[in-house]
Design a protein that fits this description.
297 residues; alpha+beta; seven-stranded mixed β-sheet; 15% strand
Length: 297
């Protein structure tokens, strides 16, 4: 049996299940400034001291936390979109790291390691983490072109967070790789690195029904929120094949939109599509369903 990672979001609680070990991530709904100060990003650093130190710096950075709150106000309260705040940042960061580690362990080369001397896979994890938690910063300004707006907001924060972890030259390489991944995370982007492709796909994999909970409560009901409500669970598994297998468990066929309308677009031209297989299983609770299974290879 391969390594299995399950990311679940239930009632503002995030759990990462890694080899049957449960790590509680977040127990509060993050809305106000006081709650933000108490909110800490938690990820499995897996013997990566630089990543561990970086996470500590992030959790002390109130500018970043404030931008997460503002971007979510624009997304949820003003546009009626699903969660784009700190909880989404944490989920995407966890998925990115898990997916990246799985791919690296299966022999997929990190672009950072391949293209530059002096870097290791642990440094690629720094890129994945920073890009994941900053990819939507531009939403604090506006939804439109938010990937571009994220770049100038993230630049100085990245420099501040990397200070003391790398020398000047290496930190600028890391910063460039992070900014590239942020810019490329939209479905019409063009990821040129494995790391950018991973972040783009991880963003789309945050599709479970907990993400649309606030949207429903605010009265915004559309195909995005309805389809997300149909997704019960997303499971990543190395399985027996040479691909990372993504299993999406649904309670309703409406969830297919999350796969064919959103995830498929993010996976195509991501640069990692040949290393990932997608399977959606529908288990309708009332027994009525349009189809039982969908496969994307």
């Amino acid at each position: 049996m391969g390594l299995q990672v399950r990311i679940s979001y239930r009632k503002n609680r995030i759990n990462a299940i890694i080899l049957l070990e449960v790590i509680e991530m977040c127990d509060v709904e993050v809305r106000g400034l006081e709650e933000l100060e108490e909110f800490d990003i938690r990820i499995p650093c897996r013997h990566n001291p630089k990543l561990e130190e970086l996470v500590e710096k992030v959790n002390r950075n109130n500018e970043l936390k404030t931008l997460w709150m503002v971007q979510n106000v624009n997304a949820v309260d003003r546009k009626g979109y699903s969660d784009h705040g700190p909880v989404h940042m944490q989920i995407v960061a966890n998925i990115s790291l898990k997916l990246g580690r799985m791919l690296f362990e299966q022999g997929v080369d990190s672009s950072l390691v391949k293209n530059y001397k002096g870097f290791e896979k642990e440094d690629a994890e720094i890129v994945l983490f920073l890009a994941s938690i900053m990819h939507d910063l531009g939403m604090s300004i506006h939804r439109y072109h938010h990937e571009k707006n994220s770049l100038f907001l993230a630049k100085d924060i990245i420099d501040e967070l990397l200070e003391g972890l790398y020398g000047e030259c290496k930190s600028k390489v890391i910063r460039s790789e992070v900014l590239h991944a942020i810019y490329s995370h939209r479905s019409n982007g063009e990821p040129l690195t494995v790391e950018a492709g991973i972040v783009r796909v991880a963003d789309a994999l945050d599709m479970e029904k907990g993400r649309s909970k606030i949207t429903f409560e605010n009265g915004s009901i559309d195909i995005h929120s309805v389809s997300a409500a149909a997704v019960d669970e997303v499971v990543l598994d190395t399985g027996e094949s040479d691909k990372v297998e993504v299993l999406i468990k649904m309670n309703n066929s409406a969830g297919i939109f999350q796969v064919t309308g959103l995830l498929k677009k993010k996976l195509e031209n991501s640069g990692i599509e040949e290393h990932i297989s997608i399977k959606a299983k529908i288990d309708s609770r009332d027994g009525a369903q349009i189809l039982e299974e969908l496969n994307l290879e």
